[in-house]
Amino acid sequence: MKRQDDEKLYQDALGKIDVLKLYDTYYDDIFRYVLNRTGDVEMSRDITADVFFKVYRHRWKYVFTSAPVSAWLYRIAGNEVVSAHRNTTRRPLLLDGELQHSDVVPVALRGDLQEEIQQAQEQVNRNAAFQRVNQQLKKLPSKYQEVIVLRYLEEKSIKEIALLLGKREGTVKSLISRGISQLKRISFTEKDFFAQNGLLVEARTNEGVN
Questions:
Q1: DSSP assigned state of 183
Q2: What single string gives the DSSP state of each residue in 88-130?
Q3: Which residues fall within 8 angstroms of residue 80, CB to CB, at 6 or more apart?
Q4: What does the pLDDT read at residue 131?
Q5: Domain over 1-126 is classified CATH 1.10.1740.10
Q6: 189: phi > 0 → left, psi -120 to 50 → alpha, else beta; which?
Q7: H or E element: which one contains 71?
Q8: What are the sequence ranges of the domains in the chain?
Q9: Which comes out higher in pLDDT, residue 111 or 27?
Q10: Which residues pair with 17 in a beta bridge?
């Protein structure tokens, strides 16, 4: 998306981030990305809420740049995933409560989702291939996890990943290659890691630019 289009869509009346539009547009994308990183539905819901809480808290500081505004969200999400893995006693930030005491219309976060969360987690647990891949990914450093998830589970191009992470395309390709090499070393067969686990995508170390 071009810079001017990004600004037009996600600026509020004062020229700052419109939190509600950002939430409506990107909640599902950020939740899916976090779920692919954690494999835990309830944790992913909490982390995604934390992401948008931080967007709300820092909306006045954000400055539109040549990068898409979604890059900001993915970077926050990546940091929150790392933080969550380090702190197993963390509590989600209360975005809905904050919004109720502000000049922003409250976002419908639907507090009572226990049954829905349980059903979604059961569905994830039944996906054996996803579970195997997720457990192996967690053994990698975060810098490899994020590029592999974005490339093969989110199916984003090298160019898109570079924009989202603020890295050069060559750096992204190198990280993917090194990450896949590490996955192959820790995997229990010599076959291609993703093909072995039953996923549709095929991981190659000679990543293209597309």
A1: H
A2: TT-----HHHHHHTSSSPPP---S--HHHHHHHHHHHHH-HHH
A3: 34, 47, 50, 51, 54
A4: 74
A5: yes
A6: beta
A7: helix 69-86
A8: 1-126, 128-210
A9: 27
A10: 11
Up-side HSE of residue 74: CA atoms within 13 Å toward CB?
24
Question: Which residue's structure tokens are 């990107």?
Answer: 26
Question: Hey, which residues does 11 pair with through a beta bridge?
Answer: 17
| Of 17-31, 104-118, 161-175, highest mean pLDDT | 161-175
Strands of the chain (E only): list them.
none
Determine the topology of domain 128-210 in CATH. Answer: Arc Repressor Mutant, subunit A (1.10.10)
User: Please, are residues 47 and 81 in contact by the beta-carbon 8 Å criterion?
Assistant: yes
Report which of 159, 179, 178 is spatially closest to residue 169, judged by C-alpha positions.
159
pTM of the model: 0.72
| Cα–Cα distance for residue pair 83/72, rounded to 1 Å | 17
